[in-house]
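Give me structure tokens for this 1028-residue protein.
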Amino acid sequence: MRKIQKNIFETICSKENLILAWRRVENSYHHGDVWFDELELSAYKFNLLDNIDRLSEKMKTGTYKMRPIKPAPYPKGNKIVKDDGENKHEELRVRQSFCIHVEDQIVWMAVYGVLGPYFEENMPAWSYGNRLFLNTWKDENGHWINGVYRTTSKLFYRKWQQGWPLYRHMLAACIKRKAFPGKKDEENCDDSELEAIAENEAQVNKAFRLPYLEKDYFPKTCNYNKLYYMSIDLEKFYPSVKMDRIRAKLLASFPIANSNFITLIDCITKFDVSFDGYEGQPFTDEELAQMDLSRDVVFDGLPTGLIVAGALANLYLLDIDLNVQEKLKSDTKHHILHFRYVDDHLFLSERKDKLQEWEKWYIQELESIGLKVNDSKTDKEPIELDSHYPTPLLTQTLHKISEIAKMPLDLLSSNEFSMVFRDLQMLLVTDFPEQEIKKGTRTSFACTMLSRLTSDINVDYDKIHQLRKKWLEYISELKLNDPAKEIMLRSVIFTKGDDYPENLDESVQKQVDEKGKKIYVSIRDAIGDSRKEILKIEERIFQLLVYSVKEIPDKPKMWLRILDFCIYHLPDKMQQLYLILARINKDGDIHSLGYEYIVSVMDIHLALQVLKAISRLSVNKYKDPWKKITDEKFLEHFVEVKDCYNGTHHYLYEDAKFLEERVRRTLKKYIGKEEGYDYLAGCNYHGIELDSSFWLLWHIERFNRSKPTPNLIMPNFLMKDLDKANIVSPYFTQLLFNCIPYVPLSNFGKQDFSKLKLDKLQKENLLLSVWGQEEENKVVKGFELSEKKMFSPNNRISLLQWIREVKEMEEKEDNVLGNALCSEYSATLIMKSVVKYFCDNIENIETLHLHPASILIRREECLKQKDWDSWLSPQKNIEITTKDSFMDTMYRYPSLSSEDYSPMIGAIYGLGIIFLQLLTKEYSLPWVFNRPEYGYEWQSVLYRLLEKGKVSSHNYDIISACLSLEDRETIKLKGILNAVVCDQQVNDAKIETLEELYREIKASLNELKENQISVAHHETRQLVMIKI
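Here you go.
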């Protein structure tokens, strides 16, 4: 069990916890899940550090205030209502949901990210839905082991595979154990059930073990060929959860003697609903009533749209879950199996009477906290179940879904494609029992998988390759004397997108005879036939996707999946998709508010996909030329697409159209139809001033949306318009730091940079970003920076200078491998001496200068000696000294962002960055520092380093341990969890002291030395050892 931290409130309010919360919030935002404001989110991110500083202070001082939440009606399936007599009709419905400001999401994420694990550890293993994320790994037997709850992961909840599928597999195993306790598992259980039992037994933490699968849990008196089950579902679960009860539970569980903590919990557990004051038409009283809202009634429920709402709903039920647990223990004959997945409950027993008694008792427990069951989804009588073949609780469909989910859909053979297509078709058109798998779940899954299917499985690439080879041989036989003509003829068969003209160009026809023309025609026909085949398959997939949304029209994410399929395969179908949605609405198969939601989210998604297409076209590195043609067609069709919406314009639709209109301006600029700068025009958006600097930064961020990378994607039109940036904008500083390592300062025009109020750290980072580049002098002059910081005493050079000069050697020398300076060994040897210096001066760890520009080595011994013999000599001694140079704030980030970390942890982090710079020869400021989330994005940098084979696995592990968020959190967890338990439940590499870092680097140095070989002329070469 966790011990409550003494400084838990300070941990909640720490900058590190708030940035980690921001990362989880941003990662949780997906269109179609919750409604959020793209532009509000971006504006917050572009000033993230200032916003986090301000937010931390407000939380600490009890001055934080929540913003009102806005209704965001979410689509919901229609309800079958019985009329008088036998007649029935469908009632259109919409789900109560809200748009919640990003900062309020961050605060709740920060609070529950710290407090939530204390509750999670008490939750029974038979509760599966909306459980918090924890790290998992496979043990030596291949079983998945659950570790500890993490705040450093970008995931807040466990993945779907750890929820519903796990629940169903465990349920199947429990049924067999319950029905046949006297038999061996091998006689009754299939492989998946045996695996579930073994995995349950392998869990280190008892909290993750299902008690039903414990040995001898069920009496072995007799076997049961049939069991009975009953299920219940809660009615309007989230709206019925009372936030006052959540507030009381939080304060009672954490009796912290700090009035500001109480103030914070009081504040965040009260949600005021805003009914007016935003763009578009306000919701009418009738529309609000359909969302179970009223202007006259104070909202006191749990708002859907709050990212942590699922976890809070589990907290609301925790006391009842614990009551259930005690009642199960008190029944020595264990008549009942009790399971819960969010608000769906399932009970099983061998006796009908026990089952009915249990359901009656449980419903009373639920009613005691204000929850009601949904009568239409609650079983009134026990349902018989065949223990050997427990329909409808079977997992066969789940097995099929799991199999398809694991398949590499882009690598299927023709036969495999046909099988998968047929299976997905079956999932869509077959009526399965709702208890086995809900129609919405299987339809949504089939839709997702169909949208990802690769359509070129029937293309005969071998035939096309052979024909192209034949053409190239033919050109060689012509023996042309004109190299330009030969190049032109060879390139004829590699036209853009393989979209071959009917006849050869006249200039080409003059060079080839009938034999050549026949080869060309055969290539064109083979390509044409393959395109026709691909188109047929894409049409089949599209029609099946359309069938899926007609069956379940209330799932926004399904519409987005089909929209993506159109974008990437059939751009001309986008308009048809909007028309289909409009027809569904006209036919009365979806609520008008749900229709507006889906149209709005599709408009936003489509607009953002346009920016992605512009980004791909600007880079122009397509492996498949047809993808480029498809992107170009997509942009052409987007210009003409109309969403066909003619309903009431609430703020959802107004915000979507605003974003779409801004993207249309960008597209006009990109294709050259707009010469002005309308796409950068400033405006006031919901009280936020979005000026030209914001729009420039927003486009750059959208064009570089993938994993962090040192290569900035910036289309020419955007680069040319940097001079339109507003220098006094709150977004300009981030814009400058994003661009300055890649773009000449002159692109910003004749700006008066003295207006830019940079602090000392920002000025230093600016100098380091351009040091050694052509723009260095202009930046130094333009911002009045001091270059003296870069200078070193006579005969000494800083590590930054060493890195720069060695990198220049690498670029100039032919025999790089023969130069010991350029090797991983020399960088590691220098690093060993640096760490030794810090170990020797550990009593001054907080004041030592921890910056590569401040750490000095002797030029003579570290730069002029290039031969391997001198570097491998046992007498090689590298003397380290330091000077007062640059601020080392960013190199000590962990210990400065949270009081939970000692100065030692901050020093290890900084030394890890320096080691990374030495190995990669990155002498300018690491580009990661220029991003808002610096300090939390190293993993993608390290992955890329390993992919390129730049460093040995041992050194990679060392740097990873120094920079790893998880490793830092593990150190913190040791103060909260029992040390033994912590060691059992985490599997990270750990470097917790400078001495451990020194030992690891020494070991790596020895390993590098052992893996050196001698080549011709007695020269030494370094082998890079990489674990596979």
